[in-house]
Amino acid sequence: MTPASAQVTVEQTVDSVGILIGQQAHLRLGVTMPKNARLQWPALKKSQYVVPGVEVVNIADGDTVDAGNEQMKVVREYTITSFDEKLYAIPALPVKVNGKTYKGGTAALKVITVDVDTLHPNQFFPPKDVQNNPFLWSEWSPWFWLSMLVVALALVGFYLIVRLRENKPIITRIRIVKHVPAHQRALNAIDKIKSEHMQASEDQKTYYTQLTDTLRQYIQERFGFNAMEMTSGEIIDRLQSSGDQKMLDELTELFTTADLVKFAKYSTLINENDLNLVNAVNFIDSTKIEGQATEEKIVPQLSENDKRTRQNRITIKGLLWAIGIVVTGMLAYIIYNVYLLMV
Question: Is the dihedral of CA 247, 253, 257, 259 positive or negative?
């Protein structure tokens, strides 16, 4: 340190006494001066030389601190380097305070080079290329086992899909059943016989079979006994208390004629066939119970087995959704982490 006056001092230092070629050191200038003084630093810029061989790399202003007694200390730092092996003497750099020049002390910088073995040139190797990281099982094993877990979950999902296909869905349909009164169905069937002119057909056996079957079905539904499995005589006996005698006589004649045609190959006249058809209609009209066709909504009832099957399907579908979400998330997580290992 060289005092220049009673109030201004300049301090010049280098933080490294010696550096290798190409390394950097810091030259610091510290000026202590009155607080209101004007300071002018040395006219040094980047890429200039402090002395031949010592180059300025960067210039940065340091902190300004209060030095007491109405004085302050200002610091400027010069980053320097050199590429020549030598001991350099850095002269005191001049600063101006209120137009007057002040200097610090001389600093030294020794630049040394790296020893090179010129006797064994075969030991020099070119720069090595970028090398891949070594394979470490400890880094990859978590993602391998996690992948195995994903495969296991996928197999469980496949098994559940097979089970779902085997358990066919229970489809329940609400049926609307139209209830037509017994007499209306019987009259409709007779109208069909008339429209086909079966009473005039040569196939009298078919005509009487259809006519008596229609009557038997009507009697069974209307009077509540199994007329389809009874003989003609049994039917007439059961109807004795259900109608007048004239009606029963006409019905007896109709059944008798039908039995003769079907079992004894009896041949009837056309007007006889027409009469029996009229007698059948008269019997139905005389014994019918008035009523309109009604509709009934039939909701099927599931058995316990069907209920279990439906619940199993719901459970399997829920498990499939959960497995799908978990597998997708785990796959994304594995792929992302494997990518980080590879880059």
Answer: positive
What predicted TM-score, i.e. pTM, was given to this entire model?
A: 0.38
Q: Please say whether the beta carbons of 239 and 268 come within 8 A.
A: no
Burial track 74-113 (b if 16+ CB lie within 10 A, e otherwise) = bebbbebbbeeeeebebebbebebeeeebbbeebebebee
- DSSP-based three-state secondary structure for 334: helix
Mean pLDDT by 10 residues, the chain (343 residues): 63 89 91 90 89 92 85 92 90 92 90 76 69 75 90 90 73 65 85 83 85 88 85 83 74 85 81 84 82 60 75 86 92 89 74
| 7 alpha-carbon distance from chain centroid | 79
114/21 Cα distance (integer angstroms): 8
Q: How many CB atoms lie within 10 A of CB 296?
A: 9
Asked if 111 and 82 touch (Cβ cutoff 8 Å), the reply is: yes
Alpha-carbon radius of gyration of the chain: 60
In the chain the beta strands, taken as DSSP E runs, fall at 2-3, 9-14, 18-20, 24-34, 39-40, 49-51, 54-68, 71-81, 86-90, 94-97, 100-103, 107-112, 175-179, 294-298
